[in-house]
Amino acid sequence: MAKCYICKEILNKSNSSIEHIIPNALGGNLKSRNLICKSCNSKMGLEEDAILAEQLNFIASMLDIKRDRGQPQPIEVEDKEKGKKYRLLPGGKPEMIKPEIEVVNKVDEEGQKKINIIARDEKQAKSVLNGLQRKYNISNQQIEEILESIEIKEEYFKEHLSFKSMFGGEKALRAIAKIGLNFYIYSGGNIKWVDDFIDKYLSESFDILSRISFIYLNYDVVEKQEDEILHSILIIGDSEENMLYSYVELFNAYKVVILLNDSYEAPDLKFSYFFDVENRKERNRKYKLKLSQTEMIKYLKKDNELYKSNIERLITEMNNIMRIIYSRHQSKLINKIIKDAFEEMDNKYPQEDNPYITSEMVSFLSREISERYVTYLIKTDRLEYLNPALSY
């Protein structure tokens, strides 16, 4: 019979709480009702989960990962040259935040000024017009006429966008530690080997970060298929080194080790979990990880040399993720270019008048695709992250 691993109360339908092993906001799919009761759930880092999710939201949003509830939050980015801010919707589509309003000083023959408005949608355009209504004496009828005549355009975004990111910090690392702890208990690990860690995790006086560290080894811990993005969790019980520890890897890039027990005296133990975040499928993958007590102490000390090394490796891993994301977006955009070109051909050559594809139609289609694709190559979306900071 399952018990809450904090208060030891027996869990049932009325007091159990659904706990995602990896937070839902990061696309986590593995969950259990046999870990924590409702009253203890608030003690185990809901705020910490939110901070970790915020740090990794740009990856979740750019990949438009699916979740049990809700969807990734948009990302605010900036065009450094013009000082304009935009919002990237899940999947990476840019959207204006503020409308652009230009009032032309010259008046027309009827003595009226011309106002140019660029808005993200009709709703925002209407809001702008309502705001200008009194100042420029615009009637309700004129607003409706303007809205009926607005021009809707979709263009390839050419600005160079950037955003800043922060990784780590006590609360985010505590959220990672909870992932490792929850997976150990979920997998059937003997709770007596983590009781001390749980007490330290809940204690305000103990520095839990002395048991948690970013870790970037000189080899890939988890073997992945080309351009595959995984969430990975490992539990290692090493009787030779007397250590029980967890390794957590999120989106291939955020890599953390958690020392659950440094006096482990049970048989060797291995639990593993690999989740394909884009296809939402559990995978079987090979892995290699064996740390000595000396290596564990080195990582947990977090000296300056190790910090610099972790920053360099984090940047490398993030570049790899951005490369994969760019490749995904490129493929989607090319598919969209082809689809739009076919729709344009259907509009110009209706099927009822053109039951067979002619050489003229083929030429038109080829021209549309090539022109759109060349425009894409010249004005391709660009996104960068600036100086990622890593904090313990």
Query: How are the strands of the biggest sheet laid out side by side?
Result: 9-12-11-10-13-14
SSE series: EEHHEEEEEHHEHHEEEEEEHHHE
DSSP strand count: 15
Shape: elongated
Helix content range: 25-40%
In words, what does this structure look like?
With 392 residues, the protein is of the alpha+beta class. Among the domains are: 98-148, no CATH class; 329-391, no CATH class. It is 36% helix and 25% strand. The protein has nine helices and 15 strands. The protein has helices at 38-41, 46-63, 122-132, 140-148, 170-186, 195-202, 293-301, 304-348, 359-378; strands spanning 16-20, 31-37, 75-79, 84-88, 94-96, 100-107, 113-118, 160-168, 212-214, 230-238, 243-250, 254-261, 269-276, 281-283, 382-391. A hairpin with a 5-residue loop joins strand 6 (100-107) and strand 7 (113-118). Helix 2 crosses helix 5. The longest helix is centred in the last third of the chain and has 45 residues, at 304-348. The two termini are 38 Å apart. The model is unreliable at 378-388 (pLDDT under 50).
List the topology elements:
Elements lengths: L15 E5 L10 E7 H4 L4 H18 L11 E5 L4 E5 L5 E3 L3 E8 L5 E6 L3 H11 L7 H9 L11 E9 L1 H17 L8 H8 L9 E3 L15 E9 L4 E8 L3 E8 L7 E8 L4 E3 L9 H9 L2 H45 L10 H20 L3 E10 L1
Parallel strand pairs: 8-15
Antiparallel strand pairs: 1-2, 3-4, 3-8, 4-5, 6-7, 9-12, 10-11, 10-13, 11-12, 13-14
Summary of the model, kept short:
The protein is 36% helix and 25% strand.
Tags for this entry?
5-stranded mixed β-sheet, 6-stranded antiparallel β-sheet, alpha+beta, 15 strands, 36% helix
